[in-house]
Amino acid sequence: MALSRKLFQHRSSVSVFGARSMSWWRSVEPAPKDPILGVTEAFLADPSPEKINVGVGAYRDDKGKPVVLECVREAERRIAGNLNMEYLPMGGSVNMVEETLKLAYGENSELIKDKRIAAVQALSGTGACRLFADFQKRFCPDSQIYIPVPTWANHHNIWRDAHVPQKTFHYYHPQSKGLDFAGLVDDIKNAPNGSFFLLHACAHNPTGVDPSEEQWKEISKKIKEKGHFPFFDMAYQGFASGDPERDAKAIRIFLEDGHLLGIAQSYAKNMGLYGQRVGCLSVLCEDEKQAVAVKSQLQMLARPMYSNPPVHGALIVSTILGDPDLKKLWLKEVKGMADRIIGMRTALRENLEKLGSPLSWEHITNQIGMFCYSGMTPEQVDRLTNEFHIYMTRNGRISMAGVTTGNVGYLANAVHEVTKSA
User: Fold this and answer.
1) Which residues are catalytic?
2) pLDDT at 81
3) Which residue intervals define the domain Aminotransferase class I/classII large in the entry (predicted)?
């Protein structure tokens, strides 16, 4: 009898365990598709020979092909087989971080010399933003982050998953297709003192609309008056204008005004190291002692997240920036990429104007960087896809990297067709 009872209990427990294990993931629904990756999937599935992908956020040459910079190829030749595959420190490559700080803060920055900057290698710009979001949550748990409208969609995901409350501030002005400067300044004034503000250092994604130098000075002044903390996402330094110094102007203005600030840097766009995931997070502190403490905490956050950053991309970056000849070649190549994008902006606008479009397309050349915020509606974008096999995100964002001398005329004709009755 006792044996029968034990067998029954054993079978019951196995049955319950089996039922529970089979039901653990029944409530999991498929995640919504990423809007940008979905555009690429649809493009690849389209058999049309006329198809164009202007949704991808990666540089392409004038034949529509991915590019590996010559300076990157040479750096890879130099490092091939010369080093072991040991772990980097949690803070990453010291040489890469040092060279990266020079790009953002200035070659001869006193802040670097005074060791006031806590900086670690990060998993490109996305990883740098996420590391900072977690740092913000841990050490300013009652704070919130103000994010521009619109912004790169992943910004919302990053701070959401770090459990940092989000608010938004005005940025883009749909009627002028430019900056809503008055709304932006009002939002800075009305935010609670000591709020965090996420700013795009240059080539704002997705709009391509950047404040002027004078506007940046006013923004810096208002943020300082309110005691806000500015956090810059700088994904396009050098890629926007072709000049890394010019593209860092906003940060330099804030530094001159005495702000403490944070910066996320990435080498995905300006060196074409998309898949290498090379970036840097830096936080400017009051003094060296504080910087040491902040860096130790950034490393502590990285430890359970990914432990150590990857080595190969960091070696490429430090090799290029640490060698005068390779750095000179990089500056030439990044200017070439930026100039091609700028040239395609001019060509697209000129083609639209030659077609007699009733709309103004000045914003195409007024905006800067990889993306053009065209002003087209989701319905017009759908027509471009369905009738002309042109793929982009439904907010009307055109990746100028996908525009070439071979397809710009076709693109302009299609855009004219779907917008001429607007």
Assistant:
1) 152, 233, 269
2) 83
3) 50-414
